[in-house]
Design goal:
heterotrimer; A mainly alpha (292); B alpha/beta (605); C alpha/beta (247); A: 292 residues; mainly alpha; 2 strands; 73% helix; globular; B: 605 residues; alpha/beta; Rossmann fold; six-stranded mixed sheet; four-stranded antiparallel sheet
Chain lengths: 292, 605, 247
């Protein structure tokens, strides 16, 4: 396979893995899958583009502000669209529709706020999107940075789940009542998880912007590809999401090369479906026991 | 409000008369207010209503969230367009092909739904919609790409080309047929089974419903309707392009269903009407459309989860209460005279060396027991001894790790639970598994699911054979409700019954299936002393009919009074087995329960 | 023999699930330093009572006073902060996490110094040496007895004043039940007050200072273990109506 394609695939795959990780972080304590996640990523890109390109703020400041803004929005989403539905009945699936509604609202707001034209975002110095030769492939320093940052983030989030708070989140996901009995407050953990997941989404958007351009069309495709990465890797498993992201990036690149770019999504979906039908819990996921 | 008003509200002839008048008005409307534009909008709305009715079946009643119905409409529209333009087909076979194509794709879309959870499925349908949208553009050889298919001719009937008036009437007629068919279907065993699959799949399985088949039926039906709507869409617009079928398109249908009222028959109609009228009034806010829809959807799910029709129904019920009218419908009267319940040939149960492991823990380590046909047998033991696990294995809800289970000599190991139920095994659960939004009678009728043979089409068309079967099931359900003592509460909502009576209703549901083997899981739990007496008498009466009854229980006195034989389990093995008198004076049994010297047998004898 | 002040006082407690009234007017008192047993057959409402005390369930009426504060209706984490811990039935552990993580979660929200936390770990590992042997083992692969010990240990990390246990003997071999009961006695000696719910009446009465008998959601009697054993209460609680009707 053409090495240049591979580099592109791994970079794109890293971004999909980050979207998936955002999903997983939100999912862990709530068992809710956020349909607005793609829009949160897009918002991160747009905020980042505004702060960095339009307002000229330093890259890290702009990125941090974008993360804060989107994290706050995610928190609001949790309060108004997720918590009320979950409180009504634990097994309700109303959140599918409420998070979908939030997605519609956000998409429209972004379209109205920023218009349809994409905004170019330049990576922070000394990184750039200019390519140079490395081991026979053309790769840019920015692409390397994205891949490295992704791996670092995955490891960092994994490390978080090793702390007491992280273990508490895993505990809530496993047995909510038992967690309550040990003084863990599931509602607070849900809120914090949405905050964190929103921040990760924003960072994903900011990172994606130089490659994918900050535009309002980003949302839906990232939602689906991020979901594919999360599902194939096993929902809740971040390392699985990383590998799955790479797999999807490669499938996309191969489909674009063999068929045509328009068939990318179809190919990705076909592969995802096949994997899920064989292993419904993803490549690294774990089956839950059923109780009657 | 006067007596006249009350009489009008109460009369059973009011509703059909109103509906007929409404239909007539709609047919005649074009002559009064029909402009080309209005006819166009009305026909398009009718097509949307068709999709929404199908989606309501799948989502509102079946509980499956599909975000891919727009793609199914696209498939229907493109099928008709390509067939008529590229291959000169007439509209009518093309429309049929469109329904078949959409139904086939719907079946394929349904496959992941059986193995994956609800929200996975929603995302997969969303992805599906995007993929189809992309393919419509990419697969130029088939779909004509960006430009789409132009010049779709109007349908022709016996040489007469349909005008816009005719199209409108066609669409209206299809809608009326769809609504009537849907009403029939929902009233039939399929409607109940679908609601059961949504609200309590375990209860549905125990009543013999195949979850897979019911979900597939809902998918295929809703997909076919979407395909038909697509056909209408194509000939009305005469041009179909990929732009007509964005992913947002699917979301509109979901919005219509939720807005109108998911799980309410008229929901899709109300939802489509409101959905169409609002943009007409808000043309200035065109660019805010998705925002408004999003906010509307959010507010609906939070404050009015049953949509407009649900809100109207709640208001109507309150009005009736204030007028002094009961909200409980009268029970249907039995045409047949009061027949008694029929005796049943009980099945013999043989369990041999059965094992069950959960992870590393052996829940059952080689349990054997035999129950003669027609006998009443109890399985007792302390908590954690494996009683419910054994019951779950006999009824097929847990797979068997080792050993055999024979019912009337036939092995049921490896059989799916709904098939075991259909084979004549009924059961109840530790916590009664009811469908709280349906009446007690409907819950009992669920038990009749396997007894009826009518297919979904026959039910929708209300064929004579279907009606006969429904009447027979109704008779059975009423008889068994009477048998357990709930006849006077048949029309109340099951969710509002006190715990003890829910338990009786569950037993009635199991009995309606005429089980030869009845498994009761802790039927006495939570019952008052009076209810305990009634339960004992009821179980004795069931046994007298010939049914083999196996009870898991803690109430040792109840067991001693009504059971011929008892098996005592302790930590996954059989501790003792025999008649109640033998078993309860056994030292080890007493020790297992209390670690003590008090003799249970003394009081029981 | 009861000594010490009343640590927990339950008065007129009523709890229901939807339409079902499970507890009707329960009165119960636990004195500091005692092991109080709560016995009754299945469905009597024992677990419901504990869940109402620890905050998992909201009572519809009545009071629960613990160390002078009314805790009825409070969220569980506040009740834990006051020193009332509940070990639920069925050994509700976090099976996907290891022994040490489970213990660490026992300290969640405790806000203690490192040194104090270290002491808690030491105390617990000393009391349950089999846990000290395999701190990295996943809780899900431990045996039933080990899981029960871990569940108790997890609660002990907070040094509770009152420890409530729901059927710790569930599904355990007699020898292991002995071990559990022995641990409870050691805890009492160390100053922990214990409210023990058990279906295994004799075991519970063997170590209790005071006992309550629950049937159909109400307390039908209470007293010292000897008084309970000597009387008719146990038979009534387990066998149901026969004796009641005759009386």
């Amino acid at each position: 396979m053409d090495l240049d394609l591979l580099v592109g695939a791994l970079t794109a795959g890293s971004l999909y893995a980050l979207v998936a990780m955002g999903f997983n972080i939100l999912y862990r304590p709530t068992n809710v899958f956020n349909f607005a996640q793609g829009d949160l990523v897009m918002l991160g890109a747009m905020f980042g583009a505004t702060f960095i390109t339009l307002l000229g703020l330093p890259w890290f400041v702009g990125a941090a502000l974008a993360m804060l803004a989107v994290a706050a929005l995610a928190l609001v989403e949790e309060k108004i669209a997720v918590a009320p539905v979950l409180n009504r009945s634990a097994s309700s699936h109303g959140w599918v529709i409420t998070t979908l509604a939030v997605s519609m609202i956000l998409a429209n707001l972004v379209g109205l706020g920023w218009g349809p034209d994409p905004i170019a975002v330049r990576p922070p110095a000394p990184l750039s999107t200019d390519t140079f030769e490395l081991l026979g492939a053309n790769v840019s320093s920015y692409q390397i940075a994205v891949m490295v940052i992704t791996v670092a983030l995955v490891l960092g989030v994994e490390a978080f789940y090793g702390t007491r708070s992280g273990k508490a989140v895993l505990a809530v996901a496993e047995d909510r009542d038992a967690a309550l009995l040990r003084g863990i407050n599931p509602n607070r953990l849900s809120s914090w998880s949405f905050f964190l997941g929103g921040g990760v989404a924003a960072l994903t958007g900011v990172l994606a912007a130089p490659e994918l351009y900050a535009s309002t069309g980003l949302g839906p495709s990232l939602l689906l590809k991020g979901f594919a990465a999360a599902a194939v890797g096993g929902i809740g498993n971040n390392r699985g999401a990383l590998l799955a992201g790479y797999i999807i990036g490669i499938v996309e690149a191969v489909a674009a090369a063999l068929l045509s770019p328009g068939y990318q999504l179809a190919a990705t979906f076909a592969v995802m479906l096949v994997i899920l039908l064989i292993r419904p819990h993803g490549l690294f996921g774990r089956a839950e026991a059923r109780a009657v | 409000m006067g007596d006249a008003a009350r009489a009008l509200i109460r009369s059973p002839r009011t509703r059909p008369a109103l509906l007929f008048a409404l239909a007539l008005a709609l047919y005649l409307a074009p002559f009064a207010v029909g402009t080309e534009y209005r006819l166009f909008i009305a026909t398009q709305m009718a097509a949307y209503v068709l999709v929404a009715i199908g989606l309501n079946l799948l989502n509102g009643y079946g509980g499956q969230v599909s975000l891919g119905h727009g793609a199914l409409v696209a498939i229907g529209a493109y099928t008709v367009a390509l067939a008529m333009v590229d291959h000169q087909w007439s509209f009518w076979p093309a429309a049929l092909l469109a329904m078949v194509a959409a139904a086939a794709v719907g079946a394929v879309m349904a496959l992941p739904a059986f193995r994956l959870s609800t929200w996975y499925f929603a995302l997969i349908t969303l992805g599906f919609a995007e993929v189809v949208g992309g393919l419509l553009t990419e697969w130029r050889e088939l779909t004509h790409g960006f430009a789409g298919v132009v010049g779709i001719p109007k349908p022709v009937v016996l040489g007469h080309t349909l005008t816009s008036f005719d199209l409108y009437w066609l669409a209206l007629s299809l809608n009326i047929l769809a609504l009537v068919g849907m009403a029939n279907l929902l009233r039939s065993r399929f409607g109940r089974a679908l609601v059961a699959v949504r609200d309590n799949p375990v209860a549905a399985t125990a009543a013999g419903v195949s979850l897979v088949r019911i979900k597939m039926m809902a998918f295929v039906t809703s997909a076919a309707m979407a395909g038909l709507a697509g056909a209408l869409f194509a000939v009305q617009k005469t041009v179909v392009t990929p732009d007509d079928f964005t992913a947002d398109f699917s979301i509109f249908f979901l919005l219509m269903v939720v807005l109108g009222g998911a799980g309410r028959l008229w929901g899709p109609v109300v939802g489509a009407v409101v959905f169409f009228l609002v943009p007409e009034l808000l043309t200035a806010l065109q660019s805010w459309r998705m925002l408004i829809y999003g906010v509307a959807l959010l507010l609906l799910m939070l404050y009015a989860p049953h949509g407009l029709v649900g809100a109207i129904e709640t208001g109507w019920k309150r009005l009736r209460t204030r007028l002094g009218l009961s909200n409980i419908l009268p029970a249907p009267s039995l045409a047949t005279a009061r027949e008694t319940v029929q005796p049943v040939a009980g099945a013999a149960l043989s369990v041999r060396d059965v094992e069950k492991r959960f992870g590393g823990v052996a829940a059952l380590a080689g349990v054997s027991l035999n129950v003669a046909a027609g006998a009443t047998h109890a399985i007792v033991g302390p908590n954690g001894s494996g009683k419910t696990t054994l019951l779950n294995m006999i009824s097929g809800f847990y797979p068997v790790d080792g050993g055999t289970i024979l019912i009337d000599g036939r092995s049921v190991v490896g059989m799916a639970p709904h098939r075991i139920a259909r084979g004549g095994v009924g059961r109840t659960f530790q916590t009664p598994r009811m469908l709280p939004q349906l009446s007690v009678l409907d819950n009992a009728l669920l038990g009749a699911f396997p007894a009826e043979r009518q297919g979904a089409a026959a039910a929708a068309l209300c064929l004579p054979r279907a009606r006969r079967e429904q009447a027979a099931s109704l008779g059975d359900a009423l008889r068994y409700l009477d048998f357990v003592g709930l006849a006077d509460r048949a029309m109340e909502l099951a969710g509002e019954l006190p715990h003890g009576q829910q338990r009786l209703a569950e037993i009635a549901r199991a009995l309606v299936g005429r089980p030869r083997l009845l498994l009761l899981d802790e039927p006495a739990a939570g019952l008052s002393l009076a209810e305990l007496d009634r339960l004992g008498e009821l179980i004795a009466a069931i046994g007298a009919l010939g049914t083999t009854v196996v009870i898991v229980e803690h109430h040792l006195e109840l067991v001693a009074n009504i059971c011929r034989s008892v098996t005592v389990l302790e930590r996954g093995t059989v501790l003792a087995s025999g008649t109640p008198a033998e078993v309860f004076s056994h030292e080890e049994v007493i020790a297992a329960y209390m670690g003590s010297h008090t003799s249970v047998g003394q009081a029981a004898s | 023999m009861s000594a010490g002040a009343t640590l927990l006082q339950v008065s007129g407690l009523e709890v229901g699930y939807g339409h079902v009234g499970v507890l009707r007017g329960v009165d119960l008192a636990v004195s500091e330093g005692d092991i109080v047993a709560l016995v009754g057959s299945n469905g009597a409402g024992k677990s419901t009572l504990l869940r109402a005390i620890s905050g998992l369930l909201r009572p519809s009426a009545g009071r629960v006073v613990f160390v002078g504060s009314d805790i009825a209706g409070q969220p569980p984490h506040r009740i834990i902060d006051l020193g009332l811990l509940h070990v639920a039935e069925g050994r509700r552990l976090f099976r996907r996490q290891n022994v040490h993580a489970n213990l660490e979660l026992g300290l969640y929200g405790a806000r203690l110094d490192r040194a104090v936390e270290r002491q808690r770990y030491d105390f617990v590992y000393e009391l349950f040496p089999m846990l000290a042997e395999r701190p990295q083992a996943l809780a899900g692969v431990l045996s039933g007895g080990q899981q029960q010990m871990l569940a108790i240990a997890q609660a002990l990390m907070r040094q509770p004043r009152l420890l409530m246990l729901d059927e710790p003997s569930l599904g355990l071999a007699p020898i292991v039940v002995d071990q559990v009961m022995e641990v409870l006695q050691r805890l009492r000696a160390a100053g922990t007050t214990i409210l023990l719910v058990e279906q295994m009446v004799e075991r519970a009465l063997d170590i209790a200072d005071h006992a309550y008998v629950l049937q159909n959601g109400a307390v039908i009697g209470s007293g010292t273990p000897e008084a309970i054993r000597g009387g008719d209460l146990i038979r009534r609680a387990y066998l149901g109506a026969v004796s009641d009707r005759g009386a």
